Amino acid sequence: MANQDTPIRLILLQSHVEHGEVISSALRNGGFAVRLSRANDIEELSRQLEGNTTDIVLAAYQHPHCTLEQIAAALRGSPSDAVLIATHSSIDEDIHANAYAHGACQLINLKKPAQALSATRWAMTLLAERRDRQRLASALRESERRCDALIDSSRDPIAYVHEGMHIRANQAYLEMFGYDSLEVLEGIALLDLIDDRDADAFRSVLKKLARGEPPPSSLALRATRADGEVFDAVMEFANASYEGEACQQIVFRRNEAPKLNDPVTGLLSRTQFMSLLDSALARGLKGAQNEAALLLEIDNFGVVLNEIGLNHADELLRDLSDLLRSHLVDGAEIARLSDHSFGLHLVNSDFAQTREFAELLRAKVQGHIIEVGKRSLTLTLSIGGVQIGPKSVDVATALGKASQCLQIALSEGGNRTQLFDPSADDRQEAARIKAWVERIQSALKSNEFLLYYQPIISLQGDASEFYETLLRMKGTDGEVVPPLTFLPIAEDHGLIEKIDRWVLSHAIAVLAKRNEAGTRTRLLIKLTPQSMLDPSLPTWIGNLLKTSGVGGDQLVFGIPESRVSTQLKAAQDFLRKVSTLGCAMCIEQFGTSGNSFDLLKHLDASMLKIDRRFTEDLGRNIENQRRVKAIAERAHAQDKLTIAEFVQDAASMSVLFTSTVSYVQGNFLAAAGTEMNYEFQ
Q1: pLDDT by residue (tens digit) across 151-183?
Q2: Domain 8-132 has CATH 3.10.150.10
């Protein structure tokens, strides 16, 4: 239900002024706070929607200057997520049907202004749910990226095996067996890594897996490195899926004596914590549900460290560790996982008890004063956790879910608790996702995707045409579905590479038509890491360019910095191959890490798109101005072009004009649309 204390931002598009007054008075009399603006035609409406600050458009069903269909189309083509309510003085079944068919979520009879109250409550509830979905989809995508990065950066050697062959392995696995790259390992059977003395026993395990029998929880044997060294190891198996196919997740560990507790805090080590979770998951698979894993992270640790000095870091961590240890419940174990993060294992704790304990721990830390040197300070913690039960698959998955929750807590400002209970999965959500998968598959077969284009405009006098290609999907009722709604699902279900190829083939076809018309255009096209890892993609692109007559220099591939940094070798290989075609690479969301420019020592990308968090409110945020100018100047010194995106106002443009930024992009200059009609001259 909408909060009536929160002002509703309302645009009136009414044929008579008094109609708008009747409805706004009814809303105010009903207790709603209303911020009102008026539009007389589609152009005025579109200008007001550009700022994406509107909640409801209240439009006449029969307006003298525009139709309801045109109003709905303007809403869909704008960056606003506002909802449409139609009004009419005489309502029948045909009017009802037409209003809803053209995108209205409610219909108000002007002769019964009291209807505005219930219609507004319903519309604001719908809008809140829509915005929550968008926020959660964004958080989920980032969490899944971090989960994927967690596996890649894990110190545990992890591989995925299908029919006895390696299909994926992290860096720790490659280092354990002495291989330089996954490409080499992909041609080697898992059996080849097992010493001959244990080969027969391992073949027996493979045969059982091929028959569909469950894998053993662990298997001790002797393994062989690429250089011939033989070492004692323990293999741990778990059923998994990779790119939609069933496979086995294998964790190899050297059979060594367990490591000692953390020397600074005296807490358990990371290795010991993983062992605890292994045992907990084994119990969970047998039906136990009263165990949990929590991840704790000190908020703003870098700022705290700057205040107290590096020489006092251990003292701070010992004090905090003692505090955490003193509040543990019976059977709980705590470990130090990294410089400023901790892991907690709880037993005899259902989901409600886990949530209560996590909140208690967070509050205890918030209220505790730590004495460090001559300073007194307080800390806060963000906590993410997962309840362990029959639906928990393996350590990597459980920690991935806990890490997702932790990142959500951090992204919402820290000093928060976010927990996940696998047993609370909703069947309706599974059905919703299945429906979306089928819808995406249908869109690929029936060309139900759309390409939008937003101009990228030079600040340095380059008048050549340059656009970013943006993907949309055709909705069932004519609406345009934004990519955040369906791309995460496509990525989860092995459809993202097909979508990338659809975008590439259609974008290149559009470029070919523009070339024939005498207009040479360059496109920035987002590429997912899954496609970047596909060794056949550069050849496929080359063939497409050759048959269409499009030059490779007309394509720039955009890949986020976070994905490049975790797939550096793949990015290097991809750039090397597409460079021979004349194509370029743009690192997107640039500047989000502390060592962004270090990437350029290993990857010669020609363009850098500055992360939008630095360009939002640029005209008033002095720190963002400093950051953007520093990135642009350093990039310019290295002959790299920069793009400032999400430019929303004239004040931001004034700042950018005085910088060395190469290109600008944003709705203030031109919104994305289906046509390439910006006048670059």
Answers
A1: 676 778 888 888 888 888 888 888 888 888 888
A2: no
> Which CATH code of 3.90.170.10, 3.30.70.270, 3.20.20.70, 3.40.50.150 fits the domain covering 270-425?
3.30.70.270
Question: What is the reported pTM?
Answer: 0.44
Tell which residue, 203, 151, 670, 659, has the closest CA to residue 455: 670
Nearest to 474 by CA among 507, 502, 501, 447: 447
- Tokens coding 654: 């004034």
Q: What is the pLDDT of residue 247?
A: 80
Note the CATH architecture for domain 435-664.
Answer: Alpha-Beta Barrel (3.20)
Question: In terms of pLDDT, which residue wins out, 395 or 56?
Answer: 56
- CA quadruple 23, 28, 32, 37: dihedral, nearest 10: 60
Which tokens go with 435?
Answer: 């429906």
- 156-254 CATH choice from 3.50.50.60, 3.30.450.20, 3.10.129.10, 3.40.50.720: 3.30.450.20
Nearest by Cα to 666 from 136, 655, 448, 8:
655
3-class DSSP state for residue 78? Answer: coil
- Which residue did the predictor score with more confidence, 307 or 148? 307
Q: What is the DSSP string of 154-169?
A: -SS-EEEEETTEEEEE
Token pair 């008094």 is at which residue?
18
Across residues 184-202, what is the average pLDDT? 85
CA distance 504 to 525: 8
Mean per-residue pLDDT, 374-392: 84
Q: Which two tokens stand for residue 600?
A: 């350029």
